[in-house]
Amino acid sequence: MTGTFVGMPAFPSAAREALGDTQLRHNLAHATATIRAKRLQVVEEVENWEELRLAGAAVKDRALRGLDEQLVQLEEALVARGATVHWARDAAEANQIVIDVARAHAVDEIVKVKSMVTQEIGLNEALEAVGIAAWETDLAELIVQLGGDLPSHILVPAIHRNRAEIREIFARRMGEVGHPAPTDLTDEPAVLASAARVHLREKFLRATMAVSGANFAVAETGTLVVVESEGNGRMCLTLPEVLVSIVGIEKVVPTWAELDPLLRLLPRSSTGERMNPYTSMWTGVTPGDGPQEVHVVLLDNGRTRALADDVGRQALRCIRCSACLNVCPVYERVGGHAYGSVYPGPIGAILNPLLADDTAVGDPQRRQLDSLPYASTLCGACFEACPVRIDIPEVLVHLRSRVVDGHREDRLPKPEAVAFRSAGWAFADGRRLGRLERLSGLAGRVLGRRRTTLGRLPGPGAGWTDARDLPLPPRESFRAWWRRTNGTLGEEDGR
To answer: Taxonomically, which superkingdom (predicted)?
Structure first.
């Protein structure tokens, strides 16, 4: 089961509500435009950018083709370096592993590196249910957590918030869970960052256990890699005595050398930097340096299901850069919450349905997941921006066909299906089509005396005509025109 937020409506309803929030649209437009401009500048510096994209895609594809062997090699390398490896089939198993490790050390709070996979499995909520506090240390994640909010972007979870809103959240909430914000707090970025630094430092120095994800896991050496911009992640990876890293099985890279194209693609595509300020790599346990007990949880949670999909498996190449979100015209206008998942935007529109277990999803969640492949204009900007060349439009169309196929056995067919079946019935017989054309021509001549368009259609057609003019049927069909000007069409013309 994926990290779909329970109770979120289907995308069309959520998007309609988001479009009414002018402040949200302003925040998103400003932030995505800034990130796009930075990315474009550093990408243009790379003469062989397209070759680099091809190389990154090839590395991920090679790992996925031999994933079973790569995972075994990764486990062996990790164990040889003193780490304990756990295998988790789903979110419940992964969460229980973290809970068991925390209880074994009598831990009642942990610090966390920014991690999409821990959001996917609902780790914070699972820990809270057993009395363990999980503190987010990434600045944007901290804003979301203190605000009782949901993340709306892969890279910048609080992209929907502006500086004034963040100042209010810090002033109101920091003192309730730790070191309070200063009384003279302003909304200047440097001042807000300083308040977060003081607030988090207390937690870093107190925590004895940390949880992280990993951007990459090198099978050859057992090395885990985290890239970040703030340094908070490195504090989590070095100060606590116990470290648990939850890693999606698709994060495997076969060899150390194959990290090269990925570490050049990721920062440029995500933060618009040539290199991330902090690239942390650790391999098991190093006596006297860093955590002395390291656990690695290798998580499936639907990934082998996605791997079995010939078209959809390319989504597992994703390196979580968020470039597709920043160029998507749909995301820019409705934001991440409308997608109802920790994976928003174009990549979320394909990743969530691919990971979901059909047998475990109730009707409301099924409707929400079925709506995601339609949350796109298919403009192709996401494919052009993707550093590992995931053809998101191709997968979207593939998933749309799955949605349609899944409703073929419904007792009450959807209006769209009825319309296409009716069209198929009409076009299947030339004589039948000819009779319908004559009827539509008659309707066009009668209605054309008073109007030029049909106006607003009733029922399901209202959604179309609310934003478009629907012209009247032509008074004369092509067949009739041809017959009048060139003679008959033949026996099959439908006369």
So the answer is: Bacteria
